[in-house]
Amino acid sequence: MSQSIRQQQLVTMLTMQDSMNQKVHPKWLKQNFQWYRAIWIECAEMLDHYGWKWWKHQSPDMEQVKLELVDIFHFGLSCRLSDSDDYQQIAETLDYEFSDIRHADEFRTTLEDLALNTLQTKSFNAQIFAGCMQQINMPFDELFTSYIGKNILNRFRQDHGYKEGHYQKVWDNKEDNEHLIDVIQSLDSSSTDFADNVYQALSQRYPAS
């Protein structure tokens, strides 16, 4: 992938993230939300999906692992947007950092390095994040597609009462994240209407009130 395409995708995601944050709170930049805290909590949740308990049999749920990584990227983008409103400059910096991949010998350790760095710096380390992506075989295009899907799910949640507390997260005995995976796999991610199609497909699946 050429650098310009990745930067363009990063600008798209930064724009969507800023819009989503404004939907949750119109003046989110002035609230000093602790995005770094959300990142390390997501790291722990991801480790549970990957598996770490030596006293029982566990098989990595890679779809959920990848979705947790996408969640982290939402918070990582928010960290960067908290420091600057220049989408292009942020995209250029992230693009460089994604090319400077850093990881430990094993995924669990890389994930712990990401959590530790986040706690130490209260920021988002894209190099270690990219190391996590590499170790679970998640290319940037997949991150981009999954990010758009999860961003739309987050918007869908807000539109259906997530903030007020009456959103149904489980439908037909499946969490909405699982429904999202099914939706993404059923749609053409290269379509210019991909985001709108994701929202429509979620609407069709969501139980009527």
TrEMBL record:
Enzyme's top EC category: hydrolase
Query: In the record, what terms sit under GO molecular function?
Result: dUTP diphosphatase activity
Sorted alphabetically, the keyword list is:
Hydrolase
> Which N-terminal residues, if any, form the signal peptide?
none
Mind telling me which InterPro entries this protein's record contains? dUTPase/dCTP_pyrophosphatase (IPR014871)
Q: Which SUPFAM superfamilies match?
A: all-alpha NTP pyrophosphatases
Q: What is its EC number?
A: 3.6.1.23
Pfam short name (any one) = dUTPase_2
Protein name, as recorded: dUTP diphosphatase
**What organism does the UniProt record list as the source?**
Aliikangiella maris
